[in-house]
Design brief:
globular; 15 helices; six-stranded parallel β-sheet; 370 residues; alpha/beta; 14 strands; 44% helix; Rossmann fold
Length: 370
């Protein structure tokens, strides 16, 4: 069985890293053919010849990754595939929280129509996502990472029968070992992933300002675009303004070995998101067997449910006092540390990448048999 795995071949891209990890695991059992979606535009014959060799095509859908100068090529590319097509959606929102919601546009006809037209012109990514969704992403099966994703998609008219939940995998990068702390004089706090507006940096700074225990903070990761560079400059300026130049570090993009080393030397991972539909950074921290404190979001609730109600991380309210209190409890309460470690160990076993890869193979076999 030949599976064409269509994903962006970019260096600093979470979906690229996700794909490469999965391809390494899947190739132990089946044949995977790497295909860059951009080849459909630049090397059409090569793209089509690779498609011909495949029994099933599996697209890693990137909401902005199938556009060239605001023009969508996901639709014609998908329609050119005349074989079973599976699509993985990594981000699913009722409405994209990064922009003003289209449903919030008010007015009477014909002004309302004009406002919606202008919104569509200004937000081509969201416009194209909506159009793809109305066409069920041209897929026979759709994989999502969380159960609440299916509820959103069903409410948008996508048949439940095409939806398949496979949790975000955890690739274990460290041996499972207990994270019991004894008389920790200074806490090494980290966050990881790309600098992005979904993270609550204002909350992060409030937490660090309220910390009584000595701390060092490291953001393990960098930026992908100009917007993120602007945000990074604001973060560094704020840290310097607070007098934290020596204990607040943003590493920039690092290789996997460096990411592992820095995670292993940390004590606590903060995932203080304002919104997030899935999070590879949380899974990466869990793979390093580190305790994660995360703001309460639907993805966190789903992770707890998937783990039989045992929280594999510490969910907190999005306020500084709650986060500071959770950090202090985590580094002082041995019973909490043991309980969290046991829950995290169970979660890692449940969603280890070899197990989630098996779920993919089951779906591939089902698709071929049909």
């Amino acid at each position: 069985m030949n599976i064409g795995w269509i994903y962006p071949h970019r260096g600093h891209c979470g979906i690229t890293k996700y794909s490469l990890d999965y391809i390494d695991e899947l190739r132990k059992k089946i044949n995977i053919i790497d295909i860059d979606p951009y080849w459909w535009k630049t090397q059409r014959q090569i793209f089509l010849s690779l498609i011909d060799k495949c029994d099933i095509l599996h697209i890693q859908y990137d909401i902005a990754g199938f556009m060239d100068r605001d023009r969508d090529y996901y639709e014609p590319m998908s329609e050119s595939i005349k074989k079973p097509l599976i699509v993985t959606l990594h981000e699913v929102y009722d409405e994209d929280p990064a922009v003003f919601p289209r449903s919030g546009i008010k007015g009477s006809f014909p002004l309302l129509q004009l406002k919606r037209l202008l919104w569509d012109i200004r937000h081509p990514v969201q416009r194209n996502f909506t159009r793809h969704m109305h066409n069920v992403f041209y897929a026979n099966k759709i994989i999502v990472h969380h159960c609440y994703h299916t509820k959103i998609l069903i409410s948008k008219g996508i048949p439940e029968s095409v939806l398949y939940v496979i949790p975000m995998p955890v690739k274990t990068i460290s041996y499972l070992r207990n994270f019991v702390f004894h008389n920790l004089p200074e806490v090494n706090i980290v966050s990881c992933g790309f600098i992005n507006p979904a993270f609550d940096y204002q909350l992060l700074f409030c937490v660090l300002e309220k910390m009584k225990r000595p701390w060092n903070f490291t953001w393990i990761g960098g930026v992908r675009n100009e917007e993120q560079t602007y945000l990074l400059n604001q973060i560094r300026a704020k840290a310097e303004e607070c007098g934290w130049k020596e204990r607040f570090l943003v590493t920039g993009w690092v290789e996997e070995d460096e990411m592992t080393r820095r995670l292993e030397s940390s004590d606590v991972v903060l995932a203080l998101f304002k919104y997030r539909s899935s999070s590879a950074s949380i899974s990466t921290a869990m793979g390093a067997c580190k305790p994660v404190i995360a703001t309460k979001l639907p993805i966190i609730k789903d992770m707890i449910t998937y783990n039989g109600g045992n929280p594999p991380l510490l969910p907190v309210k999005a306020d500084a006092d709650s986060v500071v209190s959770s950090i202090e409890r985590l580094v002082t309460d041995i019973s909490l540390q043991k309980k969290l470690f046991e829950a995290l160990s169970g979660y890692i076993r449940n969603v280890a990448i070899d197990k989630t890869a098996e779920k993919h193979i089951e779906l591939y076999l089902e698709s071929v048999q049909k």
